[in-house]
Amino acid sequence: MNLEEFIRQNRSGFEGEGPGPDVWARLEKQLPKPKKEKGRVVQMMAKHWWKAAILVALLVNAGLLLKYMNTKQEVAVVIPEIQEMESYYSARIEQKMDELKQLPAATAGLDSLTLKELELRNDTYKMLEKELAANPGNERIRAAMIRYYQMKLELLDRILDEHNKYSNDSPSTQKDVL
Amino acid sequence: MNLYPDNLENLPVTDQIVARCRMGDARAFHDLYHAYSKAMYNICLRMTGHSADAEDVLQEAFVQIFKNLDKLATDSSLTAWVKRIVVNHCLSYLRKKKVYFEEVEDQEWKSEDGVDEKEHMLTVATVKEAIGQLPAGYRTVLNLYIFEDYSHREIAGLLNISESTVKTQYMRAKERVRQIVHLKSKRI
User: Does the interface predicted TM-score (ipTM) exceed 0.90?
Assistant: First the structure.
């Protein structure tokens, strides 16, 4: 039997193992970014817009609350059972925050400033609390606090949702508490 | 004998994986790499003869494959294109190692002509070892022809030498393998 025939007949015997896992590990760090400038910007926005939006929304909301409280107008809508709602929201927010804190920092991609703004008892909260203590029974301040809770809760839900959407590579162990 | 991923030759799949890579989908790059890494690493290993160098060459080749995927024409074979890039990286590795593909003088071998083929006990291990002992230039020609299925003309193009040089080198490479196998079997 000549050499060519022998090799062709035993071709699979000449194949060895594949490369070690290091090759992919190194390659992974060099993966090309999407080429088109526009495509990249759009993709970046799709992936990260909400992180910027959280900070803006929370800061704007805090500003609006201040303005709202300083107006002399009566509140049109009186929210019933404020006390219960307050404890309900704060419990939910604490729960969501715990969930968020369990995510690896890099995956969640939130900076410390945003996280601080999301904390339940941050400066805005303390400010509202102080106002409430000074004016016990003031429905407007209570309503403002509830609104602040609602907004925060919505944003937390959104962050966790978005995170789950973009992390489908590794099945999320997060359970939706809703 | 199926060394290459047939499913990637199937157009819709190929199109899909290439399209996903072009969009920068990390998962698609991962899938593409894993579909080809074993067969391509084996090419690198045969061509370089060293596992660490083979991994380096494979990595460099895949960086280029990923970068140039959008230059791949839709009607061309993904496998042939991937393989060509890998082979070219192997060849530039060999050139860096100062391997020359031009005609070389090899008087010492000619005296050993006339080995009786029937006496050869060809085994995968002995053939592998014998190929491994070939001078790099001969080994390259033999690998490209027998293992990678390139024609003499294609090899001439890849190595930038004449087709007749390729043929001569191939014949000598084969002859040398026979001799090594023969010597080995006599020793046993």
Answer: no
